[in-house]
Amino acid sequence: MRIRQPMVFITLAVVLVTLLIVARGRYPASPPERSSPRDTSSLLPPRTGESPTPLQSYTSSIPPGELPNLYPGTQWTTPKSAEYPFVTLTGEGKFLDGFGLESTALVDSPNDFLEHYQRELARGGWTFLEVAGDEVYSYAKGESLFMYRYDEITEGEGLSRHVVGYKLFVQYN
Fold it and tell me: Where is this region: Disordered (predicted)?
């Protein structure tokens, strides 16, 4: 009997810690639902006073009008030319010359950002290639590649660690 009592205590402690972590939002109890590739524009709240910024105004091998507009829910850096990781049409990961932008302000949730690019790329005829970790999305159109992702920004440590926002990234070649 004595051996079982410590095991019961340890099991209860593990369950309580797990519940505390889930309750604080560090690890969601279930992954967020992702919308299907259908048009979700009617589900998004209207954005007043924000006009989309076209990406085609930046230097790229992609013809003008082929890139989706920048997500209007945040401010963006100027595109930087560098080697970026992309997933190719064959599913291979490669570092290729391209352009990258990142948000200058944090957003509360990446869901509108993800839906914006899912919708815009589908409308533009881009082919979905891959999603990695539910955070990195890769598309292709001909030889052109487009990737968007987000990073979770947190504060605190251990059980007091919590999400304060999300930083957004866009890359294209």
Answer: 27-64
pLDDT tens-digit readout, 124-170:
999 999 888 878 999 999 889 999 999 999 999 999 999 999 999 99
Partner residues linked to 70 by β-bridges: 53
Q: Where are the alpha helices (DSSP H) in the chain?
A: 4-23, 111-123
Dihedral sign for Cα atoms in the order 123, 124, 126, 128: negative
* Residue 124, helix vs strand vs coil: coil
What is this structure's pTM? 0.65
Residues 125 and 66 in one domain: yes
25 shares its domain with 62:
no
Range of the domain at 15: 1-30
Quote the CA–CA distance of 65 and 163 in Å, as a whole number: 36
Four-residue CA torsion sign, 76, 81, 84, 87: positive
